[in-house]
Write a structure and sequence with these properties.
mainly alpha, 5 helices, 2 strands
Amino acid sequence: MTNILPLLRAQKRWSQAELADKLDVSRQTVNAIETGRYDPSLALAFKIAALFELSIEEIFSLPQEPNGQSS
């Protein structure tokens, strides 16, 4: 899963630690989500979307396969 979380966080001028505090998760969790090593739970994805006032789909997307379909 890919995401624009680093961009959104940078627009707010928040560190990973500040975002983690707002989401009640660890800084390591924020880092893992941003780098694509961890997909957030649905509950956490909703929390992230609400915090940035966007839909989940505006923040997270599935990678596209060569034939144009999501995997």
